[in-house]
Known about the structure:
Layout: H1 5-15, H2 43-46, H3 71-79, E1 97-98, E2 104-108, H4 113-118, H5 125-136, E3 145-148, H6 162-179, E4 183-187, H7 188-196, H8 202-205, E5 210-212, E6 215-220, H9 223-228, H10 233-249
Parallel strand pairs: 2-3, 2-4, 4-6
Antiparallel strand pairs: 1-3, 5-6
Helix pairs in contact: 1-5
The structure holds uracil.
Uracil binds at residues 108-112, 115, 121-122, 124, 126, 148, 224.
Amino acid sequence: MVLREDLRQQYLAAMGIRTWERRRPPARYSGAGAGADLGFAPDELARADGQQLPPQPAESAGPTAVADMDWEALEQAVRGCTLCRLHLGRTQTVFGTGNRQARWMFVGEAPGFEEDRQGEPFVGRAGQLLNAMLYATGLKREEVYIANVLKCRPPDNRDPQPDEARQCEPYLLRQIALIQPRLIIALGRHAAHSLLKTELALGKLRNQRLNYHGIPLIVTYHPAYLLRNPADKRKAWEDLCLGRKLVEAGP
Ligand code: URA
């Protein structure tokens, strides 16, 4: 998608990023050598490079293991999931949305009030900011895939509990395996910690190419955090620019 420069400036403005300095044209994100100057992950995060996605427990899936499910079976398994306490309070599950052949996959934390009501991730205020971030990056919401670590809303928007994330993980892993995106963007520390199995602070994880079983992964701030801390929007923008560079550099 090629976004008109004036439109892109409008979306950047919507993100709260002021753009008075001269920007180089988008061409700089593609072509030979793109990505050559990227920082690489600490050893503990990079070691999964090139490996297959880990085996996924079958316990939640009845007769078919989650790892073997097609989209339809996976959606059905998520819809009927009762593996953790969160199913008791949900209006509906929030599976994920977007292009199943997406090059970009965004992973958030868990549905909030609006997502639980509408059944779609990132449709509340944080979602509006995510949309602005996507458009500023030259992406349409329909061309990326958006999912969460948890498929059910935690009560009062509390943090996901470790056992909830553990029970839900096979669903996200299967979504990633089916999509095989060129890049995963982990939105916020819960998504980053859950995917990377680390407890490193977000500030130490962001703005570098990490690896999720051979798939490049970039950690950035969660849009809800950015709504509370608009001064960090510029850093999120840097992270997305790095993402664009990686995607356009190809596999
Ligand atoms: N926050 C998230 O992490 N995910 C959503 O879907 C909405 C808000």
